[in-house]
Request: fold
Amino acid sequence: MSYRPLTAAEQTDLAMMRRALLAAEEAAARGEVPVGAVIARGEEVLAVAANERETTGDPTAHAELLAIREAANSLGGWRLPGCTLYATLEPCPMCAGAAHAARLDRLVYAAPDPKAGYAGTLHDVPRDPRLNHTIAVHRGLLEKEAADLLRSFFKDRRKRPPEPPGHPPTPG
Reply:
């Protein structure tokens, strides 16, 4: 079996997904579902975020949405052309819709989400030709690492006693 060297674009994708995985690991340490996201324009990182729903009590505090907001803030506008969203988990309907609304060029995600994935699993918002903008999607980059992190988090969570209502989960 022969191996070819990675292209510069593939190397960038790997580096950005590794950064998203690091954010996901940091989220898990805080008791958040371990999902991380990065928005980059080429090799320039515009935003890094992780889930904050438990911490903030905000149902929209998904990693992807927080990263989109931060990147738009960084660029001074809501349009993010030339940008890629890297996510450790396939975006849900809300996050896939936000990626579309932000006019991102690309979406790269690690693990598919069989229960809420809206970038190819349950529906395909990014590539829906009926919409006024489509997003190129690459799935499965560092999928095993992201899936293992999620599996481990939920396995650990099932072992713990339930948290009192209104309190974030106790970090591991």
